[in-house]
Amino acid sequence: MLKQLAGMGMFGEKAADLELTTEPHRLRKPIRIVDNGRAIELGLGRQVLRLYPAFGLGFGDDPGHKDWILVDPDQYFSGVAGFLRLKPGEAAIVGRGDELQDSIFRFHKSVAKRHVALKNDNGLVVAVPLDDEASTGISCIEDPDEYRRLGAHRLHRLKRLRKIFGGSIKMLSKGEV
After folding, report:
1. Are strands 31-33 and 16-18 parallel, antiparallel or unpaired?
2. Is 175 part of a structural domain of the chain?
3. 25-26 and 124-129 as β-strands: parallel, antiparallel, unpaired?
4. 65, part of any domain
5. How far apart are CA 60 and CA 148, in angstroms?
6. Is 23 within a domain?
7. What average pLDDT does the segment 142-158 reach?
8. Could you report the per-residue pLDDT of 109-122, keeping only the tens digit for each?
9. What is the pTM of this model?
10. Which pairs with CB-CB distance under 8 Å and at least 24 residues apart come from 21-29?
11. What is the total count of domains within the chain?
12. Domain ranges, residue 127
């Protein structure tokens, strides 16, 4: 699912830097989103996905972020749901053509098989439209409650894991991981 796509020429075209606002921007050419630490909303056809900066849970993690997490907000906060993580240097083609993504996001038929390519360029998101017929909107989310909701949700799931395993969960060393 995650691939090193830079060699495919997809990210070879110079991406224009763009500072997002809450107003949707129609994605027509490659852009690099100027990092503002805010979540990003992607409108893929009639479906909405969100990219969240992956901040640590406060257990000695670096307060900055480099990873991004792609979720369907309608599913992610309501039960068991998957997500796609983009680490620095990783890229993904998002669309119905990827069977695993389709099972995670349950794409609407308005989402193209190869809708948009996303790359984590050392913490900055590069987005490249892949289908001229497909509509792609992109904007940022200003709502601070959205971040609290995400953090609380992650912490709740961690506590549930502790309960399932019947005790404390300790951090593994980088070598063990």
Report:
1. parallel
2. no
3. unpaired
4. yes
5. 19
6. yes
7. 65
8. 999 999 999 999 98
9. 0.75
10. 21/139, 21/140, 22/139, 22/140, 22/141, 22/142, 23/139, 24/137, 24/138, 24/139, 25/137, 25/138, 25/139, 26/135, 26/136, 26/137, 27/116, 27/127, 27/129, 27/136, 27/137, 27/138, 28/129, 29/129
11. 1
12. 2-165
